[in-house]
Amino acid sequence: MAESTERETDNQVEERFCRFLLDCAKDDEGDGDAGDGEPKRPYVAQLEQMVTSEEGGTVRVDFGELDAFDAELANAVESEYYRFESCIRAGAKRAYREVRNRLTAGEERRPGQADPVDSRTFFVALKNLRRDADKLRDLRCDKIGTLVRCRAVVTRTSDVRPELLMGSFLCLKCGLEAPDVEQQLRFTTPTICRNPQCNNASMNKWQLQIDRSRFADWQRVRVQEAPDEIPAGSLPRSLDVIVRDEMVEQVKAGDKIIATGMPCVTPHSGGLARAGESAVSSRNESLSQGVEGAKITGSREMTYKMLFSACTIERSDDADGKDDDEADEALRQLQTAGGIVGDAADIVTPRDARDQIVARRMRGTPRLYDSLAESVAPAVYGHKDIKHGVLLQLVGGIHKQTHEGIKLRGDVNVCIVGDPSTAKSQFLKYIHTFLSRSVYTSGKAASAAGLTASIARDLETGEMGVEAGALMLADNGICCIDEFDKMDATDQSAIHEAMEQQ
User: Fold this and answer.
1) How far apart are CA 198 and CA 190, in angstroms?
2) How many other CB atoms are there within 10 angstroms of residue 463's CB atom?
């Protein structure tokens, strides 16, 4: 009875999410070219684009629109995302099938030809949640399996690898195939063979059919707390964020991101690497009891490791929740202010339009260069030359390349030298708090590996990877190094090449 009720609830979530994708409409009042006045359906247009290009499997959904269309469905997805995540993916696949059947109504399928939709895998990327982004320290047990947002800084990204989603296994005893076995955060084989005369329940008597299994791109992103969110006297917390499909290769080391997804747990296998302890891996042969605890992973502990399975990952600068209507309003304000300064094609976001408005107003300001320089570290009196230099460093120049292929950097490096207590560190700390992509470090306790990059071994996979240092985290930004003269000569020479190429 309980299983039938749960299955019926899952079917309702799938059906209602499919209806949302097909029926959700937005009034296109701001578009003066729309003659018919019909509301546009953004998700239908997105699915039609996927059908036309025959590429892509991620449907991007605004959670605010889902809440406005079906509040009950939005609350269910937010509170029980782990349970309904597969349901909304099935709903997206169902909506894609309906759109494809409508667009390809005249085409006839050859006898024996499989449905191409069955072999595709779909993901749903949710964004613009109602709640604010949480810190890494706030991700506790009460948020496991729920839909949340978190903000952090990327420190390392792994290679993009194929992940097994649905496996097709061949029984080595009787040769019967077990298709579409869903993977449960680890390599999962069928519990028992469907052949009543075989009853194969051994994990080692199954062979994976790679050609009939479904894979998806997978990447592990290592993130840690932002420096301004670390409490006094505490070390920064780190967390692994798992991204799939079109969300891979979206961020790099040093980016401040906002990830939307769910915290999930996996058995902690740290006991495998301990000296003097043997790995314990056992499976209870009684099917009624199943797998006991975390013994299947070789762990003797009852503690679990937390991961963050992200459906959407984006830079914090892009995750501002601005929609097309606000972009049109900003463009109208720009036209009112006197037109576009540069190329109109450069206006792609409301922030670009607002920047154009500010640029037009600033052009007529007298003593603009001096006024901007005085706004750098306004709490520091005097030091006009230093403020002018810091301003030029913030603005930057133009990167050039000669005919011989030699690259000339367009940025400057500023070295502030002076007596003690002359506000040298105040300039560095002001730039660190003012600029979104900046790193502040002290050269007294820094090494060459900590400033540039180091080779570190992954404790779980055992592979060697590059751990980003301060200069890599501040790529295309500002790296503020205090007490530079206290560094060793070898450490100073290690970052000279990076300073030349930055």
Assistant:
1) 13
2) 10
